[in-house]
C-alpha cells in the first residue's frame, strides 16, 4: 500500500479514538516521570478533559455519512456514533467518581494507573462500537477486558479486590475462549473476517442444512461467550464477587461502560451476520427468528435470577450486581423481540441505565467510603444526615425500579412495547419482565426504608466531594429530564441517526 | 449429511495420533524393560542432575523477578520476530508498513519506559 491510498482514508473520523489513545499515552508517561511527591489526583482532570474533547469531536462528526477505513476494520456509522456517545458520557462520569475515590488504605503509587486504565478500557469499547471486522472487534473486546481485570485488582493489599481480579481473569478468559472458538467457526466456514462479506457468504451457504447446523454452533458459542461479558444469567456467576470486591468506580465502570460495550458487540455481530441469513431450508424465516429463543431464554432467566437473588443481599454493591444482571435481562428482551424499534429501545435503555446507575454508584461510593463498610444498614437515616443526597438516591432507585416520571420507566416501557409489537408478540417475556419488576420493588424499596425511616447510627453531616456532586447532579438532571420529556433523547436519536439505515450497508 | 460426516472424519486423524501418542511410550518402556539387564544398585536410585550430587529439596520458591524478566524477554523477542520480515520485505511494503512499525515500536518503547521506571529492570 502506498502513501496516497493511506492518506486517502478519512482519518479525521477516528479523531475520538486518537484523542483517547493520545491522552492515555500522555497520562502514562506523565505518571512515570512526575516526581513521587506530586499528587496524581490531578491526572484525573486531564483524563476528563480528554474525554470531553473526544465527545466534542464526535459531535462534530454526527452529520457525516458512514465512513469505512481500511476495508471496514474501522467503520463509523450511525450505530457506532450513537453508542460511542453513551460510552464517552459514562466514562466521563466514572473518571469523576475515580477522582474522588479514596479507599481506606489509599491508592498510593497506583493512582495514576487507575486513571489511564479507564481510558484504555474506554478505547477498547469504542473500537468495538465502530468496527466491521471480527479481528478488530475481538482486539477491542480484549483491550476492554484486560484493562478491567487490572482495574478490578487495583486495591493491591485488599483481599476482596484480589479475589475479584482473580475471578474476573479466569471467567473472562474462559468466556473469551468460547467467543473466539465461535468466531473461528464463522471464519472457517465463510473464509473471511469482514462482517459484510461474511454475511454474504453465509446467506449463499445457508441453503445447505449442514452449513446451517455449523453456523448454529457458531452462533451459540459467540452468544454464550458474549453473555459472560453482559453478565446475563446463567453466565453471571462472576458478577457479584467482582462487583463487590472491585473499587467502587471500577464497579460503576463494569456495570455501565463494560455492559454497554457487551451489548454493542452482540448487536454488531449477531445482527450483521444472522439477520439476513435464512434460518431453515425453506428460507421463509431468518436465522434470528428461528433461533431467538436462545436469547429469550437468557433474558428470562436473567430477569428472574437477578431479581430473586438480589432480595437476599445485605451488601449494597452485591445487590447492585444482581440488579445489573436483571437489567441486562431487560435489554436482552429488546434484542430477542427484534423489531423496528429495537435499536431505539436498547439505546434509550442503556442511556437511562447509565444515568441512574452511575448516580446510584456515586452515592454508594460516598457512603461506603465514609463508613468503611458496604452493608445496606449504613444507609440508615441518610435522610437525616443529608436530605439532598437521600432525595437524589431515591430518584435513582425509583428510576431503577421503573416508576413513572423517571428515565428508567420510559426505557422499560419502550422495551415492553417493543416486545408486544412484534408479530408474534413476546407475551411470556413481557410478563416475566413485569413480574421481575414487581419483585425488584422489594429490594429497591428496602433501601428507601433504610434511608427515610430508620434512625441514623451517626448524626455526622456528609461532605460531598466536587466530583461525586457533579455526577449526582448530572445523573439526576438526566434521569428526570428523560423521564418527563423522553422525546428530547429520542428526537436527538432520530434526527442524527435516522433509523440506523447504514448499519448493514 | 456428507459435509458433516467428512467434517467429523477429520477428527479421525486426531484420534489416530492420540492412540499413537499413548501407545508409543507404553511400547517403548515395555520393550526397554524386556531388553535391559536388571541389576538394581543404590546409586541408580538417586536423582540424575547433570552429574552433580543432588542436594536439598527440588521444590523451592524461585524469585518472582525471573518471571518478569521472562515476560520482558518474550515481548522484545516477539518484537524482533515482527521486525525481521518487515525489514526484509521493506521495499514491497512501503511507507504504510513503516508507519505501522513506528507505532508498534513506540508503543513497546512506552512499555519499556514503564518497566524501567517501575524498577523491573533492577535486580532487587
Overview of this protein structure:
The complex is a heterodimer of chains A (505) and B (124). Chain A has helices at residues 3-8, 15-33, 43-60, 78-99, 111-129, 134-152, 159-190, 195-205, 209-230, 238-245, 248-274, 287-310, 316-336, 342-371, 382-385, 387-401, 407-421, 427-453, 466-484, 487-497; strands at 67-69, 74-76. With 505 residues, chain A is an all-alpha fold. Chain A has a two-stranded antiparallel ribbon. The mean pLDDT of chain A is 91. By secondary structure, chain B is mainly α. Helix content of chain B is 69%, strand content 0%. Chain B has helices at 2-35, 64-88, 90-93, 95-117. The mean pLDDT of chain B is 86. Classes of the chains: A mainly alpha (505), B mainly alpha (124). Chain A binds chain B through residues 1-3, 5-6, 25, 28-29, 32-33, 208, 210-211, 213-214, and chain B through 1-4, 7, 93-97, 99, 110, 113-114, 117-118. Chain A: Its main location: membrane. Chain A: It is a multi-pass membrane protein. Chain A: This is NADH-quinone oxidoreductase subunit N. Chain A: Belongs to the complex I subunit 2 family.
List keywords for this structure.
heterodimer; A: 505 residues; mainly alpha; two-stranded antiparallel ribbon; 20 helices; 73% helix; globular; B: 124 residues; 2 domains; 4 helices; flat; membrane (chain B); transmembrane helix (chain B)
Give a nutshell description of this structure.
Chain A is mostly helical. Chain A is built from 20 helices and 2 strands. Chain A is globular, with a radius of gyration of 22 Å.
How are the secondary structure elements laid out?
The complex is a heterodimer of chains A (505) and B (124).
Chain A (H helix, E strand, L loop, with lengths): L2 H6 L6 H19 L9 H18 L6 E3 L4 E3 L1 H22 L11 H19 L4 H19 L6 H32 L4 H11 L3 H22 L7 H8 L2 H27 L12 H24 L5 H21 L5 H30 L10 H4 L1 H15 L5 H15 L5 H27 L12 H19 L2 H11 L8
Antiparallel strand pairs in A: 1-2
Chain B lengths: L1 H34 L28 H25 L1 H4 L1 H23 L7
